[in-house]
Amino acid sequence: MQNESFEKAVESFMEQRIADCGMRGSDSLQEAYQQFEQALHTLKSMLTPEQAKAFVKLEDAYSLVDGETTNCYYRAGFSDAVQFLLGWGDGKWK
After folding, report:
1. Cα angle at 26 between 20 and 27, to 5 degrees?
2. CB contact at 8 A, 40 and 58
3. Quick one: pLDDT at residue 62?
4. Domain definitions of the chain by residue range
């Protein structure tokens, strides 16, 4: 039961952190996404209808990879932070 509560707390924390960072991304990250979106738009305008269908699948796959990458790194960072804090639990590194 305690493990389940902890898992729910971690999940809630991660969701909130991802949402917070998504709303307040860095300027350089926002610029990179804008450039990416512009490149996508340019490429889409050059595609045949059949290529456009394949391109939509590519966009969907990229969105999934991007979301999972974000989730993975936030979880890793959170885990590292917890381990660091627990390692210094009594004022000395364990």
Report:
1. 140
2. no
3. 92
4. 2-77
